[in-house]
Amino acid sequence: MKLNFEVDGDEFILAGEASSQVKKVLKQLGVSSEVIRRIAIAMYEAEINMVIHANGGVIEVEITTEKVYVLIKDTGPGI
User: Fold this and answer.
1) Contact predicate 22/3, CB 8 Å
2) How far apart are the first and last CA of the chain?
């Protein structure tokens, strides 16, 4: 299963939507609560950083029976 999310760099109120949606999907798939918690926290932190520091970006999530792969691509200028 693949999920894609756009994170708007100007919308603080929407930060966290992607992590919430992935958390919901993982619960429906029966993934352990510890794994869900770790993924949700990491994604939320990344989303907040994208909104605050990087003018937004995209998040790609791939869920298989063996792994959950999360790719964060921001549009910020870099350091």
Assistant:
1) yes
2) 33
